[in-house]
Amino acid sequence: MALINDHFLKLTKNYLFADIAKKVNAFKATHPKANVISLGIGDVTRPLPPAVLEAMHKAVDEMGTVEGFHGYGPEQGYAFLREAIIKHDFLPRGVKLDATEVFVNDGAKSDTGNIQELVRWDNSVGVADPIYPVYIDSNIMIGRAGVNVDGRWSNITYMPCNEQNNFVPQIPDHKVDIIYLCYPNNPTGTVITKEELKKWVDYAIKNDVLIFYDAAYESYIQDDSIPHSIYEIRGAKKVAIEFHSYSKTAGFTGVRCGYTVVPKELTVSALDGTRYPLNPLWERRQCTKFNGTSYISQRAAESIYSPEGKQQVREIIGYYMTNAKIMREALTGIGMKVYGGEHAPYLWVKTPNGETSWRFFEQMLYSAQVVCTPGVGFGPAGEGYIRLTSFGERANCEEAIDRIKKWL
Ligand SMILES: *Cc1c(COP(=O)(O)O)cnc(C)c1O
Fold this sequence. Notes:
Blueprint: H1 7-10, H2 16-30, E1 37-38, H3 50-63, H4 79-90, E2 102-105, H5 108-114, E3 125-129, H6 134-141, E4 148-149, E5 152-153, E6 156-160, E7 178-182, H7 194-207, E8 210-214, E9 240-245, H8 247-250, E10 258-261, E11 267-269, E12 275-277, H9 279-289, H10 295-303, H11 307-333, E13 338-340, E14 346-350, H12 357-368, E15 370-371, E16 373-374, E17 385-389, H13 394-407
Bound molecules: pyridoxal-5'-phosphate.
Residues 107-109, 112, 132, 182, 186, 214, 216, 245, 247-248, 253, 258 line the site of pyridoxal-5'-phosphate (PLP).
């Protein structure tokens, strides 16, 4: 008899985007002429840059020749991409990595979900709140989350991020084995300074804590005093695994490519106290369960490191960041409290008069025909906020902001 992995049955359905769609559809049914603008989308909208297109076309042509055909590639990624990553994303920031520490993947979601396979099921987990849902759900699936009491998992420490702590959580006052951090942050759009990140690294070294650091939005950082990588902090290679993605950087949400860094210095203890490096374990895991990202996607990713590629990516990010600036200034101008949006494509907006996230969502939909994402959908500490994304078309952003201004 096959028995189900009943941890999957514990997963609460992620109703957030389904609930939003339901409410938007109900509005459209009663207001068929309304032109609804969505500032809720989490997907990019700008097309792929020309350097990427050229690289992909070339790779496709190669694949059609006997000499240029590429079948299974190395599970860890092609050397040309791993070397470009080290040379362009890390060396200029003073971080030296070996190619064997970089694992190319099909996007950061897979690895942020899969990485927890490397540690025992009975580790305790700390997550920033609000949060990207993958971190918690992947731990529920393997049975690490404990029991759900009033919407919170007993073996998960929720570390609230709010105005009081500038959206950087307090270091837990009790034992936690694994910590998930994401900066620049989705959903709050806020960043962490080097000094604050150093506190986390020092804490992890002192207390033997493993950090999973999601840097999916690092290319949105506009000021190089803000860390792009946790490895800019001394000692971080001993305690942190870092995730990168080309999805929000270069419009790769449909192309699929990213990478994970597992430093060789990083070791984790076994029950008998022996320490083992995670790098060979992750390599073994990938070789067993993953057959590599397509050659075409990896050539596409490589192309964004060329001078033209870099310039074109800067333009795309500049487009989204200008959207963010327009929205941020307009909303601040009418007295709203707006966080994020300076080094990330997200604005985290406090609802006026202490409205709940959902109530403000509905008011904005009915009064301005603009869709946002209720902050509470990302975790309990998101209550009283909404998230706006700057991934839309410029004209839509401007129109949406005009309507919100008129309404408020
Ligand atoms: C979009 C996103 C990712 C990356 O997703 P991909 O699988 O690379 O497309 C990772 N982490 C966060 C927080 C994100 O918002």
